[in-house]
Amino acid sequence: ATPTSIMVGTGKGAEHGVLFKGGAQLESLQHVDAVVFDKTGTLTVGRPVVVKTFGQEEALDFAAALEKKSEHPLAHAITEERDVVFDIDRFTVDAGRGVSGVIVGRDVIVGSARMMRERNLPLPDWSAAGATFVYVAVDQEIKAGYAIRDELKPTTKQVIQELQQTKAVYLLTGDRQEVADQLAVELGIPQDHVFADVLPVEKADHVKALQATGRRVAMVGDGINDAPALATADVGIALGSGTDVALEAADVTLLGHDLQQVVTAVRLSEQTMKNIR
Ligand code: ADP
Ligand code: MG
Asked: Which residues have C-beta within 8 Å of that of residue 194, sequence separation ≥ 6?
């Protein structure tokens, strides 16, 4: 590629809020044949809302107080549902699982089904189809829960369909299988392209596994949890609204929240290389 065509390509990108780290990144994007999307904050708006609560009020109060210390989007949904203050001891974040702490001498855990299962806490069979579930355990017993929903971004469906004309699209999420499967059906992503219940440290492993099958992989994500996967991918694409860590790990940064920019980035790469040949 000539320096001039690359400068033109990166310049056009910048005009559209698509920032390539450099010429090499602009070049490599055209070779990508698989695009992996993180769910929360990438395909979805990332402003989840509590649609239903289950169980004990006291436990819900504890959970709301505890989540004030977390910056996770789900924590935001929970603190929006109610505003409660308690002194908290021994607060811990368990990445991709949830949070825990001690409130008025009681052990409180707020997190995913996986987190509860790993602690051998039997799950109640509350249901709300397609919703993300967050459970609240007090003194080693699940006492309450939240059904939480996060809307798709307006362009998500269209972008997935456009990309699927030339590339394989995958969904990668820490959320539970049922939520991921339902979303995949809605978006037209094949069931065997869905990786759910994935811990932050495992996200990069899924990218590696795809690469091992011969795929050239672009990973699109926003969260702090996505940084290792972004760095592992052949091309890491970070949403500019995301965390600093994600941005540092990225080859391409999209300013704004519009997924259509992923398509723009791919097209720019293809066009730049065409001009060279
Ligand atoms: P995603 O991959 O969809 O961005 P994360 O890896 O951030 O999701 O989180 C995975 C799961 O862990 C969430 O769906 C949720 O069940 C649980 N979780 C993570 N952080 C919290 C928190 N602060 N409070 C409650 N649950 C949490
Ligand atoms: Mg995310």
From this structure: 170, 171, 177, 180, 181, 184
Per-residue pLDDT at 276 exceeds 70: no
The pLDDT tens digits for 157-215 are: 999 999 999 999 999 999 999 999 999 999 999 999 999 999 988 999 999 999 999 99
Asked if 3-45+152-276 and 49-149 have one fold, the answer is no
Q: Where along the chain do its domains lie?
A: 3-45+152-276, 49-149
Pocket probe for ligand 1: among 134, 146, 205, the residue whose CB has the most ligand atoms within 8 Å is 134
Class of the 49-149 domain?
alpha beta
Which CATH topology does 3-45+152-276 take? Rossmann fold (3.40.50)
Indicate left, alpha or beta for 192 from its phi (over 0: left) and psi (-120 to 50: alpha). Answer: alpha
Length of the chain: 277
Residues enclosing ligand 1, CB less than 6 A?
38-40, 67, 70, 72, 74-75, 96-99, 110-112, 132, 134, 173-175, 200, 223, 225
Structure tokens at 135: 């459970």
Ligand whose nearest atom lies closest to the CA of 66: 1
All residues with CB under 5 Å from ion ligand 2: 38, 40-41, 223
